[in-house]
Design brief:
- This protein is of the alpha/beta class and about 375 residues long.
- About 25% of the residues lie in helices and about 25% in strands.
- It contains 10 helices and 20 strands.
- The chain has a 7-stranded mixed beta sheet, covered by helices on one side. Strands 16-15-13-17-18 form a 5-stranded parallel beta sheet, sandwiched between helices. Strands 1-4 form a two-stranded antiparallel sheet.
- It is globular, with a radius of gyration of 22 Å.
- The chain starts with a strand and ends with a strand.
Length: about 375
C-alpha cells in the first residue's frame, strides 16, 4: 500500500480565542492511494478500537452507543475509555442489542496491541504518535454548525503520515460534511408508547413537550398558567422538582428507543447537547436546542450556524437566545417556537454511513 499526502498550505484562523491552522490539513481527495488486491485489509471477524472520554455529561457515551448501533460494521469493538464502570452501566441501561464489545481502561491501553483501525470519538485525547505503523485513524470532531469546520472535513491531520494516516471527520449536518446519523421515523403510535410507559391513555390527544435540558436552563423555566391540554415529559433526575406540576411526568431514565420514539411523537421538544438535539433535527419536528456550555460560555459561531441552518426567524432566534443565556423562559415560549418552525429536509443532511464508507474506502479498508 502506498499513500502519498499532498499538503495544501493555508493561513491560520482564530476561533473562540484559539488558533486553528488549516495548514495542518490536506484534502483526502488529493491523496494518491494505490492498493493491489492483496493489500485490501478486511476486518470481518476482527475488532475496532473506539475511544471516548467521559467528561461531564452523557454526550460522549451516547456517541459511542450511536456508533455501535448505526455503523453496521461486521466487527466487534473494544471501547477504550477513562471510566469503564460508567460506560458499562450506560450501555447496559440503553436496552439496545449491541454488537460484541469489550471495555478497556484508557490508562492501561497497550498501543502496540491496537486494532488496525482506530475511531476517536469527539476528539478523545490520545497520544497519536504512539499508534504503530500500519494503523489507520479516524478522528471525529464535536458537533458543529460553524461553516469554518468544513475546511477540516475529510482532511489529513497534522500528525498523519503515509504509514499511519489520520483523517478528520466533521460531526455536522452542514452540506460538505457528513457525520450525522440518519434514522427511520418511529412506527410506534402515541397510544402504544403510553401503554408501554404505563401512562394514562387520555394523554394521547394532548400537546406533547419532552424537555431534556441542563439544570441551569430548567431552573429558569416557568410553568405558570399552563393549559391542561399540554403534557410535559421531563427527562433526567434534575427535573424531579417539577413532579408536582399538573400533567407533568418525570423520567430519570429512558431507554434509547423509548426516548427516540418520544421525540418523534412530540409536538415540540426542548433538547440539550449533541446527540439528542440531532435526533430532534432528524425527526423533522420543531425543537429548541439547549446548547452545551463550555467554561467560557456557549459557542456563538455554532449558535449562529444552527439558526441559519434551520432558517430561523426573529421569534425563534429570540427564544433560542433566552434559553441559552439563562434568561427566564416559559411554556408559552415553547409554543411560539412551534408556530415559527421551518422544517428541515433530512434529505439535505449528509449521511453518516455514506461518509464512513467513503473514508474507509480511501483508507483501503474493506469491511
Amino acid at each position: 500500500m502506498k499513500i502519498e499526502s499532498k499538503k495544501i498550505p493555508q493561513k491560520q484562523e482564530v476561533q473562540g480565542g484559539k488558533i486553528f491552522s488549516k495548514e495542518a490539513y490536506s484534502d483526502v481527495s488529493d491523496w494518491e492511494i494505490n492498493f493491489s488486491n492483496d493489500e485490501i485489509r478486511s476486518f470481518s471477524g476482527f475488532f475496532i478500537d473506539i475511544f471516548a472520554d467521559i467528561i461531564d455529561n452523557y454526550g460522549d457515551m451516547w456517541w459511542v452507543l450511536e456508533f455501535l448501533m448505526m455503523s453496521g460494521l461486521p466487527v466487534s469493538f473494544r471501547i477504550v475509555t477513562d471510566d469503564t464502570s460508567t460506560m458499562r452501566e450506560f450501555l447496559q441501561r440503553s436496552e439496545c442489542a449491541l454488537p460484541e464489545y469489550e471495555l478497556l481502561e484508557k490508562n492501561k491501553y497497550k498501543y502496540d496491541e491496537s486494532s488496525d483501525l482506530i475511531i476517536l470519538g469527539l476528539h478523545a485525547k490520545v497520544d497519536l504518535e504512539r499508534f504503530p505503523s500500519g494503523t489507520s485513524i479516524i478522528r471525529v470532531s464535536y458537533l458543529s454548525y460553524d461553516p469554518w469546520y468544513r475546511g477540516s472535513h475529510e482532511r489529513e491531520h497534522m500528525l498523519s503520515t503515509p504509514e499511519r494516516p489520520i483523517i478528520e471527520l466533521t460531526y455536522s449536518p452542514l452540506s460538505g460534511t457528513g457525520w450525522v446519523w440518519h434514522y427511520e421515523k418511529s412506527a410506534t403510535t402515541r397510544l402504544e408508547w403510553l401503554e408501554k410507559m404505563w401512562l394514562p391513555t387520555t394523554l394521547e390527544g394532548k400537546i406533547w413537550i419532552p424537555i431534556f435540558v441542563y439544570r441551569e436552563t430548567l431552573e429558569k423555566l416557568s410553568l405558570v398558567e399552563r393549559s391542561e391540554d399540554i403534557v410535559i415529559f421531563f427527562i433526567g433526575n434534575q427535573s424531579i422538582s417539577y413532579l408536582l406540576s399538573p400533567i407533568s411526568y418525570n423520567f430519570s431514565w429512558l431507554s434509547r428507543d423509548d426516548f427516540w420514539d418520544l421525540i418523534d411523537l412530540a409536538d415540540i421538544s426542548v433538547l440539550r447537547g449533541e446527540i439528542s438535539s440531532l435526533r430532534g433535527l432528524m425527526s423533522s419536528g420543531p425543537y429548541l436546542w439547549d446548547m452545551y456550555k463550555w467554561k467560557g460560555g456557549w459557542n456563538r459561531e455554532d449558535s449562529q450556524g444552527f439558526l441559519d441552518f434551520i432558517h430561523a426567524d426573529e421569534t425563534y432566534r429570540e427564544i433560542h437566545d433566552k434559553i441559552n443565556t439563562r434568561k427566564d423562559w416559559s411554556v408559552e415560549d415553547i409554543l411560539r417556537v412551534r408556530r415559527h418552525w421551518h422544517t428541515v429536509s433530512v434529505d439535505e443532511i449528509p449521511d453518516f454511513r455514506k461518509t464512513l464508507e467513503k473514508t474507509l474506502d480511501k483508507l483501503g479498508i474493506s469491511l
